[in-house]
Specification:
The chain is mainly α. The protein has 15 helices and 3 strands. A hairpin with a 2-residue loop joins strand 1 and strand 2.
Length: 305
């Protein structure tokens, strides 16, 4: 039994108690308040007696602990504020079910981490395989120099540098954009780059992501769709069409994967939306391998100069 769970049995946990908890104890406390996906901290006492700086600290630390549980950070923040402002049986304190893909209308408490959560949700929704989970990312951020190996392929500098530290914090959102670039390459490689289907999926994902960050006004702006369209059109052409025909492209993907000793048969579809998730993943591997080949050739040519 954890310290938090043991103390919870002995007496009602107070806000002052939580300030003294370490991260593991805070996570244990939140677990005791999570009943089948419902979070209720209305029994927490002493919040109203904290100073403003202590309340901010408690909110920050509870949010970090909630991040490890994939709970709704903004909802947790709102509930904590409710506890601080009222001690009655207000309906606002009634527990509600937390959804990992819930959309919030207030600015995120921790903008970068909120963006990573939303990007992970969109990446999974679209069939991608995130480089790491939110829990793993939080674990890495706690000690980057000791734990960065998981995200090493996504870093261009050492994790203790300003660039490397920033890249770790944004690794999932950058992975989502990389996956979106692959999705666009699927349409380009089939000669369907100008169709609306691929762009529409990217547009809807962008709307969900920015709405989740509390940027409703930006989404409502008449220029939003066109801005996202330019972003879609300007994605780097890291994998230009290898041929004018889909058949030639299909064969090129098979040959590339075979050269890496991958022999199981698979069938690309002219309409990528009709492919299986497994086939999409194989095509993504081919996409990354081709990008690697291009970068390798470029590096070799620079060495000979």
């Amino acid at each position: 039994m954890s310290v938090a769970e043991s103390e919870a049995e002995d007496h009602a946990v107070t806000a002052t108690d939580l300030l003294a908890y370490d991260e593991e104890q805070l996570v244990s406390y939140l677990k005791t308040q999570d009943h089948g996906g419902e979070l209720d901290i209305s029994s927490l006492t002493g919040v109203e007696s904290l100073s403003e700086s202590q309340r901010d600290e408690l909110t920050q630390r509870l949010s970090q602990a909630a991040l490890l549980l994939l709970l709704g950070i903004d909802e947790l923040h709102a509930r904590l504020q409710n506890v601080a402002s009222t001690r009655d049986d207000s309906p606002d304190l009634a527990p509600s079910r937390l959804q990992s893909d819930s959309i919030v209308s207030t600015p995120p408490l921790i903008a970068v981490e909120n963006l990573e959560i939303l990007s992970l949700q969109e990446l999974i929704r679209d069939g991608g395989h995130p480089v790491c989970s939110i829990q793993q990312l939080s674990h890495i951020l706690a000690a980057p120099m000791a734990r960065y190996e998981v995200v090493l392929p996504w870093l261009s500098d050492f994790p203790d540098s300003e660039t490397g530290a920033g890249e770790i914090k944004t690794v999932i959102s950058r992975h989502f954009m990389r996956w979106s670039t692959f999705r666009k390459s699927q349409w380009d490689s089939r000669g369907l780059g100008d169709t609306e289907v691929g762009f529409s999926a990217f547009l809807e994902a962008s709307k969900r992501k920015y709405k989740g960050m509390g940027l409703k006004a930006m989404i409502s702006d008449p220029s939003f769709d066109e801005t996202i369209r330019r972003q879609w059109q300007q994605m780097p052409a890291s994998q230009p069409p290898e041929s004018q025909t889909f058949s030639a492209y299909h064969n090129a993907v098979k040959i590339r994967l075979t050269s890496y000793r991958f022999t199981p048969s698979f069938q690309l579809r002219k309409d990528p939306q009709k492919q299986t998730a497994w086939t999409d993943w194989l095509e993504y591997l081919s996409f990354e391998l081709r990008c690697l080949e291009i970068l390798t050739l470029t590096a070799e040519s620079l060495e000979t100069e």
